[in-house]
Amino acid sequence: MRLNITYMMTPTSPLLRRLLPALLLAASLTAQDKKEGPIQDNSFLVEEAYNQEAGVVQHISTFTRYQETKDWIYTFTQEWPVFSQKHQFSFTLPWQRLGASLDGKQAFGDIALNYRYQLLGDGEAKVAISPRLSVLLPTGDEKLGYGKGSTGYQVNLPVSFTLGGSFVGHSNVGATRTPNAQNTEGDKATTQDLSLGQSFIWLAHPRFNVMLEYVHARSQVVIGPNQTQLQTATYLSPGIRWAYNFPSGLQIVPGIAVPIGVGASRGEKAVFLYLSFEHPFTKTK
Q1: Rounded to an integer, what distance in angstroms lies between the CA atom of residue 137 and that of residue 148?
Q2: For 98-120, how does the pLDDT look when each residue is reduced to its tens digit (9 = 90+)?
Q3: What is the number of other CB atoms lying within 10 angstroms of the CB of residue 243?
Q4: pLDDT value at 16 more than 70
Q5: Where on the phi/psi map is residue 204: left (φ > 0), alpha (ψ -120 to 50), or beta?
Q6: Could you please report the per-residue DSSP string of 58-107?
Q7: What is the CA radius of gyration of the chain?
Q8: What are the structural domains of the chain?
Q9: pTM value?
């Protein structure tokens, strides 16, 4: 982990040159004297534990492109409070192109419907916990490898915590079970997946963050009737994000990260782009 951080900060690093325009743009935000709270957006690959405030909706777009395969995945998520911050509903729509599918066709994947409960804390607390339950609808075409061909059920436990005044951490543990999942040949088996995530965010400025995330996934894929095979993926992802705040209450948060495969995923690289729009949808006094 330390080696990757050192590489990021090397003056001759190509990665640093790519991020330099965003760094300069974010640095220009420090010239604003208006006092505002810190960015409390989602981490890019790890879920935070702060539900949406009452009367505020968030629209999140992400785009991931893998360097070797040229595959890419775009997702659109909306997060809505349900009467109060205690309850939150969201949905995620994935649009993707996978080279492993027939002719590299672009298509929808499986849509996720999500409910989260603010069990402990909020954006102002030192510790926040917000468990999530999701239903994964079989909207993707499993014959092309874009979905599992069966409804799946997912649970995730995000925990967010402050580390002094300048650092925030997010921890995730999640599991997914898909009965009668299908492969491209139509074979069926029940799959069970596990995911772990940890992120640390340096609040360098209320409108500029430096991020480091770690994610590990253990997934089962169907290889025959009632037969599955275990696959693992592990990534370390440095990134940055910054915010534009407007008098209307609108906040725009762009971001960029570079997930790097480690362990069994060593050699795999990707570019991750993030864009969030958050604004009130009810009138405030």
Answers
A1: 9
A2: 875 446 678 999 999 999 999 99
A3: 23
A4: no
A5: alpha
A6: EEEEEEEEETTT--EEEEEEEEEEESEEEEEEEEEEEEEE-TTSGGG-EE
A7: 19
A8: 2-280 (2.40.160.40)
A9: 0.84
